[in-house]
Amino acid sequence: MTRTELIVADHVLVNDDAGTVLSPGAVEVADGRIVSVARPAARPAGPGVTDLGASVVMPGLVNAHAHTPMSLMRGTAEGHSLLTMEGFLTVLRSREEHLTPDMVPASVAVSCGDMIRHGTTAFADQYFYADEIAPTVERSGLRARIAWGIVELGDDAARARELDAAARFAESLPADGRVSAWVGPHAYFVDNTPEAMAAELALARRLDAGLHVHFSTSGEEDAWCLEHYGRPALEVLRDLGMLDVPTILAHCTTLPADQLPLLAGTRAVMAVIPSVAMMSGVPAAPVREALDHGVAVALGSDNVCNNTNTDLFEEMRVLGKLAAFTSRVPNQVTPREILRIATVGGHRALAGGPDDGRLVAGAVADLIAVPLAEVARGPVGAQSLEAALVYGTSGASVTHAMADGNWLMTDRAVHTLDLAAAARRQQDDYDILSSRMTGRRTRETTP
Ligand SMILES: [Zn+2]
């Protein structure tokens, strides 16, 4: 039987092009979808009504580039750039050599808990051992596209093994489920050969899945493609048909602006992570230029090894400030555009529907609530609610999170995962990983 729920709050941010805010507003939800959104003549009450009072209800944020198992290595990459092969090999692969599948679920739970508590309701993941990631994500209630990360470095045996694992994983989940499987080439041309890319594209097409890849993090793909093909990487990708399936291109920090028109009208989405660009000392992704060319843009956190958290409210704020700082143009990307990137752009990256990420009839019922008292907003009329959410709100203020019509968190209590148990197990996993690396038993003392 269909269960209908009416969510009421002092303010409902519709997230449409007109910047509509309903005060008060009511969102009707059934079967995982939004049925209606309206400003009620009288405050509804009674069975089936959840009144969140003096709060802002808004679409849940979408993390379009994550590596959930890597919360196990949070902090280990400080002082290194993970956007180069050198940093990737020195800091991460040296640890991942000792990582076993049993270490994945607890850290996935920690990451999913972080995302729920900070207002993220959907995400795109990329890592190996994806079959160990999926059950915890299913339990978390989050919407997700989980890509099996493929690193082959020209090794024929590794290529065959990873492609086989990715195919088996992708076939294990329904293509249209809340949690579905994608294919995750780690980085085209850098550590995935054209032979592997052709097989990955064929796999994505056969399973109606998408591709999730790091791209243009340091110019390595362009250097390789200019040497081998005489043209930039994006042109080669287009010619290979890699942009004709849903594709998340994570980072895009060194993507030349004159290449952006190649992305317009394709199924590829730029997923930018401004904090990681800053931490790694690389250029900001060309967000303004991408929007102007009609390129879809989404927001991500990347791994937390050198970014430290998954608070997309902070990431929205950093996007706006970094764009202004690097262009020397105040408000170069507007708060409305930034909210759109973190919601509608994210659902597009996950191959969702065109209205997903807005609170309108027919969209997925993914939403969050923030108490008005914790939104640093000027007097009404002085500042838009959108600007206050981007520049004056912490993800830690989120009290409620719903995905697919189900409450994952109410009154700051996460219901779907045992986060205390996950944190304890993660510490044990970290101690074992450290002992494997050093060859002796160690325990880091945490303050
Ligand atoms: Zn990444």
Bound molecules: zinc ion
Unreliable segments of 5+ consecutive residues: 441-447
Terminal CA distance reads 51 Å
CATH hierarchy: architecture of the largest domain:
Alpha-Beta Barrel
User: Which CATH class of the largest domain is shown?
Assistant: Alpha Beta
- Range of strand content: 15-25%
What is the count of β-strands? 19
Q: Biggest sheet: strands, sense, closure?
A: 7 strands, mixed
CATH topology of the largest domain: TIM Barrel
Question: Radius of gyration from the CA trace?
Answer: 21 Å
State the assembly state of the protein chains: single chain
**Count of separate structural domains:** 2
Mean pLDDT: 93
Note the total helix count.
14
Q: Per the principal axes of the C-alpha atoms, what is the gross shape?
A: globular
- Helical coverage, percent range: 25-40%
Coarse structural class: alpha/beta
* CATH homologous superfamily identity of the largest domain: Metal-dependent hydrolases
Strand order of the largest sheet: 3-2-7-16-17-18-19
List the helices and strands and how they pair.
Elements: E1 4-9, E2 11-13, E3 21-22, E4 25-30, E5 33-38, E6 49-51, E7 55-59, E8 61-66, H1 85-96, H2 104-117, E9 120-127, H3 130-140, E10 143-150, H4 156-171, E11 179-185, H5 194-207, E12 211-215, H6 220-228, H7 233-240, E13 247-251, E14 268-272, H8 274-280, H9 287-292, E15 297-299, H10 312-327, H11 335-342, H12 344-349, E16 367-371, H13 385-391, E17 400-403, E18 406-410, E19 413-414, H14 419-438
Parallel strand pairs: 1-6, 2-7, 8-9, 9-10, 10-11, 12-13, 13-14, 14-15
Antiparallel strand pairs: 1-4, 2-3, 4-5, 7-16, 16-17, 17-18, 18-19
Helix pairs in contact: 2-3, 2-14, 4-5, 10-11, 11-13
The structure holds zinc ion.
